[in-house]
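Q: Here's a chain of 333 amino acids. Please give me its 3D structure as tokens.
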Amino acid sequence: MILRRKLQNGETNQQLDDLIANLPENNDHIANYILQHNGQLPPQPMFEKHPYLDTFELQNFEKYIIGTFPPISYLYNIYGLNIINNPNGGVIRRPGFSFFHGNRGLLWDYFLSENEIIELPEDNDLKPNFIQNILLNSKVNYCDIIFNVRRELEDNKYKGSDNLLFNIAPNLILINHILNNPKAKYLMFNTASIYGMNGLEIQNNSLISLENDAKSFDVFMRTLQELEFALSLSFDNGTNWVAIENLNLFQRRVKLFFKLKIKKPNFQEKVFYIVTPFSPAVAQRVNILANNPIVQNWRMNNENNNTKVMLSQIMNYFRNNDWDALQAMNVNI
């Protein structure tokens, strides 16, 4: 299954099919290219395999946090590279540490408590194990929804934006773990268009559109659709359900906490609670969030605190199972 299929310049469909049929098992090919070209990344991006999926073993916990794919800076630490440059120059910044969200560590700034942040080791090599222990003690799984991907350049530069991720092979191992874990119940997504003002896009064929972006919730939902699951959402704690294809404009946007029901023949129906806050990166830029009614309502009721404080609070509610508090953060528009 490949989502957001897109040809590179001069590429034929057959050439892309051949690449997809032989997706890489690691990223040696990219590291070797960099070493052979004086630290320069390839001008046409290659397919990548997610570098961290084997670093944290999924457990039968109730809760999952789900992201997309890390910036290409992960190559530094994994391959011991001295420098990585964009094709036309400009150095790619080194990541903080080798783990999910290790590039800038933003997610962990919000997920960890104040005391845990103080205890976070200064040595970057020790940070992954510290964070993994926090996740295990909190009984929270972390994983990304993308297994293999090929990026698109922006201004001839490699960037970490979800909208530049194409030819996505979704992480079916994660999907199957969630579906087969009898305890799985609460899913938080780092990025989701249903949170924003523009909302979830539905194509005429009732499939969730990934044309403009590849947010983690959207990729997860589209993957379930490709696996022939029927999807329904409830915004009143399960009293009423609306099939994805029947969502109206107001039901497709400005949502933070709601229920998802999935079903298909010969599969036991499952219901999950979904949490879709703004991303850790966007939390740094309150101007982008200023017009969102969820943010406006929260700030009005919380002494006009900024969105960094708001995201920390959402993470705290999630860690401590305060579902009523998350439900109360919703707004009706």
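Q: Can you summarize the key feature?
A: The radius of gyration is 20 Å.
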